[in-house]
Amino acid sequence: MIRFCVTLLHLLWHLEPMVQIVGAVEMHFVQTYINQIYVVCGLVGLFLGGEGLIRGAVSIAERLNIPKLIVGLTIVGFGTSMPELLVCLQAVNRGAPDVALGNIIGSNTANILLIGGVGALIMPMSTQAKGLRRDVIVMLMAGVALLWFAFKGVITQQQGLVMAGLILVYLLLVLVLERKKTIPVEMEDIGAKHLSLPWAVTFVAGGLALLIFGADYLVKGSTAIASSMGVSEAVIGLTLVAVGTSLPEFTVSAMSAIKGQNEVSLGNIIGSNIFNILAILGITAGVYSLPVSAQFLSLDLPLMLGATLWLCVMVFAFKRIGRLSGLICLLLYAVYLTWLGLGAAGVQALGVSVLQSLKAFAGL
């Protein structure tokens, strides 16, 4: 009996730590699911908020008889980039600047390699549209400027304001050069003409509210996931956040390619990349100076610039981007994601392991 009581006390003594461990594990899984829900809700909020903002703003602009070109360059252009802007501002405000910069760099890389690759696989994209060469040069110059600013380890507020000013110069230039043309945006597809003024204002207000809500939850969930998985915030920004905020561009490009409007698909990619660097990053850095981690300089920025340079070569040297080029883009993006997933240390360890195996095999 005494032995039984001693054994029971021994079990009870060790039971509480075991319960605490089990409880901690359960709480970890619960918190992981909550963070995933945050990310999903954030992405949905960004998507619906962007749609509502554009519909309402375009409807108001139509009622004010604002020319379609100005509507496309300003309201539609900035409207589709609002998710990225609010995510970047929210990330820096929460003390996660790597998420903000990773979002910009990752979005531009995904636009070319992922979205461009899928678009080219669906329908080869023509590179002969007027104005495309001008825009792709602007995109390359914006990428070079970003790399130049980032080399000092921080993108200052002054540099951010310079980039924000350059996007205004670019829009003014396009407005002057394209003033006699129409833009490839159908207002009927947006649904703007079917909204009364009160509903349009409601869409704008509701869209902004959803964008703010979505940005907050996406940043909150993604940074928590990064912390729980032991992944850097830069990697989360380059992958999860970047691809998530690029979903509108992916939808537009894929639907344009399916409809055979491949020039629209390519133009959407180039325009988005210009806006991301000059407008989104410029405004964000203009509000908060952005520190630049070494990872961006060693791999991600050079890759983004390399993809941009490749697109420039395709636009100037070839009449179209074919399916083979699209497949190569997707394979390169898959390799890049694999590298980010394993991490530089993981890839290096894998390489050492393979080398040792080869040496052992050669010694047999």
Automatic annotation (TrEMBL):
It is a multi-pass membrane protein. It comes from the Bacteria. It is found in: Membrane. Residues 38-175, 200-340 form the Sodium/calcium exchanger membrane region domain. Keywords: Membrane, Transmembrane, Transmembrane helix. GO terms for molecular function: calcium channel activity; calcium, potassium:sodium antiporter activity. Signal peptide: none annotated. The chain crosses the membrane at residues 34-58, 70-92, 104-124, 136-155, 161-177, 197-215, 235-258, 270-290, 296-318, 330-355. GO terms for cellular component: plasma membrane. InterPro entries: K/Na/Ca-exchanger, NaCa_Exmemb, NCX_ion-bd_dom_sf. The keyword Membrane applies. One of its GO terms (biological process) is intracellular calcium ion homeostasis. This is Sodium/calcium exchanger membrane region domain-containing protein.
